[in-house]
Design goal:
about 575 residues, Diaminopimelate Epimerase, Chain A, domain 1, inorganic pyrophosphatase (n-terminal core), alpha/beta, single chain, OB fold (Dihydrolipoamide Acetyltransferase, E2P), five-stranded mixed beta sheet
């Protein structure tokens, strides 16, 4: 893995000093606020005190009135409603949320999640045929649908209406749905543009309760699903997302739904949970359902009503995730060998690999691993339905979606955003795509972007991490994109002699400053070899902090990002 450049985040010191005078808190935390774009007392108070009453009125979203009117009509007329969602965490939590919400007072419901291998991403034509055969007259598509022109048109010809709840960029106009709920529509005035797909489903539920004058507290038990989607779909942890995640985590930690409780029980992850527990604990298990099998298994788990059946279903997903990991690691090893076996690979700015043997459900993970290992935009392709199907991941400073736009003549279809995308193309176009993608990367990737950057919030001493420091840092949670867990820089620390190497190149750390007795412990994932090089002398550590349970007490531990002399 390429060693990152350490870079302190620029901070407007004058604004930070003013916040310190106004708030009366340590200057370090005022700098953290400024780095997050928070510059006034009112903004700081809103940040520190999330409030569900601050959520925007859902009817500010374009077409929300049309969506509620059509859904209300279906409910009153007893129509069959089909809930459709993508096969990943965001899609499965969306379907579970809407089913849990509507089934509280309505029974004529069904749900459908596409087969990743046979149908692929988005609203599939087979799903429309399923809706027709089962008598559904309304489909609510969640975490997809904004590009489903053909499927929605076919459904309309059968007399089936669509309500789309999506958060992806529209393309080629809007589908002919009754309502297209998507804050990223150019004509949508909704103030917050970065909701997850499940977040938009929640706004539809919120709008229906307002329409029917139902107490808003009746949908609060849906927030745990919204929090899982926000965390795992890696949407910005700001604005409404941060508020929804804050209260969703509170519900998850105090009264979790049975299915989520069962997942945590099966992997022995202790409460309380934070965002990283959702991303690295729950997310892979929920995703495993659709990667190597039927995504409906995840929905069934999330809707479980009793602990025994939930534990059985959770156990099946844990096993499926083990199988996914075996395939994942084997594919990543093969991809690494193929990359490093290519003449002149170090000079190339991008990675494009194709193998008809690779599993379609794992190529996104493999692309992420290649980008992480080599710090290059990576595209991993496999063969499916007589075409090459790929998943791509990018590096900071390289807009992946913009690059794919310049290759669109080579594709059957493509979609995504600056950081992650997917595409389908004729197999014979793979080589041409690889060369054009490389030329775009060479043009766009500057020398500064050829190595990863570790953005550091502040330099501190370990002595500063006292109870007051911990209390203030907790108020910055939940962490996520645009509100990252702060990375700190401690200079001149030494090994106490109790650090030790673990398996898989990890290291258990026990460190202090040379002139202090304050000892901090923690973990350095993948840093074992680096630690061996620096342990005999004072070194610098870049780290963030995590809370862990130890013998019934909550303790702060270090999570090292990098070590250097």
């Amino acid at each position: 893995m390429t060693s990152p450049r350490w870079q302190l985040i620029p901070t407007d010191e004058q604004v930070a000093q003013q916040l310190r005078d106004d708030l009366g808190i340590d200057l370090l935390f005022c700098r953290l606020l400024v780095q997050r774009g928070i510059k006034t007392v009112d903004e700081a108070r809103t940040f520190f005190r999330p409030d569900l009453n601050d959520l925007h009125n859902p009817f500010l979203m374009k077409d929300m009135d049309l969506a509620v009117a059509r859904l209300d009509k279906a409910l009153k007329n007893g129509e069959r409603i089909l809930l459709y969602g993508d096969y990943d965490v965001d899609g499965t939590t969306s379907v579970a949320l809407m089913f849990a919400f509507l089934s509280g007072f309505y029974q004529n419901l069904d749900y459908y999640l596409p087969d990743r291998e046979k149908e692929g991403y988005g609203v599939s034509l087979p799903s429309v045929e399923y809706a027709r055969k089962t008598g559904a007259s309304l489909v609510i598509a969640m975490d997809c649908g904004i590009k489903a022109h053909d499927a929605v048109t076919l459904a309309k010809s059968y007399g089936i209406d669509f309500i789309v709840c999506d958060h992806h960029l529209p393309e080629g106009g809007l589908p002919d749905a009754v309502a297209n709920l998507d804050p990223k529509r150019a004509d949508c005035p909704y103030p917050f543009k970065d909701l997850s797909g499940c977040g938009i489903a929640f706004k539809l539920a919120q709008a229906l309760t307002l329409h029917n004058n139902t107490p808003q507290e009746e949908i609060d038990d849906l927030l745990d699903l919204v929090a899982v989607s926000i965390a795992c779909d890696i949407v910005p942890m700001i604005g409404e997302n941060r508020t929804l995640a804050h209260f969703g985590l509170h519900r998850l930690n105090h009264s979790p739904r049975v299915g989520l409780w069962a997942l945590m029980n099966r992997i022995n992850r202790p409460f309380p949970l934070d965002v990283s527990d959702l991303v690295f604990g729950l997310g892979p298990l929920i995703n495993a359902a659709g990667r190597l099998g039927d995504a409906r298994d995840a929905v069934r788990l999330l809707l479980s009503a009793d602990k025994n059946s939930a534990l059985d279903r959770a156990g099946a997903l844990v096993q499926r995730n083990r199988e996914r990991r075996e395939v994942d690691y084997a594919m990543a090893d093969e991809a690494r060998q193929r990359i490093t076996g290519q003449p002149g690979w170090e000079a190339r700015k991008s990675i494009v690999l194709y193998s008809p043997e690779w599993h379609k459900g794992i190529i996104g993970i493999a692309a992420s691993r290649m980008t992480e290992a080599f710090h290059k935009p990576s595209v991993i392709l496999t063969h499916s339905n007589n075409r090459a199907v790929g998943s791509a991941r990018s590096v900071p400073g390289f807009d992946l979606y913009e690059a794919l736009q310049q290759c669109e003549d080579l594709f059957f279809s493509y979609g995504g955003h600056a950081h992650a995308a997917g595409m389908q193309m004729p197999v014979e176009n793979v080589d041409a795509f690889a060369e054009r993608f490389e030329s775009i990367a060479c043009e766009k990737i500057t020398p500064e972007n050829t190595s990863p950057v570790l953005e550091i919030c502040a330099k501190i001493r370990l002595d500063e991490i006292d109870p007051s420091f911990r209390r203030l840092l907790r108020q910055f949670e939940p962490f996520g994109p645009h509100n990252r867990n702060p990375v700190f820089w401690a200079e001149g620390v030494v090994d106490t002699g109790y650090s030790r190497l673990l398996t898989n190149n990890h290291v258990r750390l026990s460190i202090r400053h040379a002139d202090s007795s304050k000892v901090m412990t923690g973990i350095g994932f993948g840093l074992g070899a680096v630690f061996e090089k620096v342990k005999s002398r004072p070194f610098d550590i870049a780290f963030n902090l995590r809370e862990e349970q130890w013998r019934g007490e909550t303790v702060f531990t270090l999570q090292a990002k990098d070590l250097r002399v």
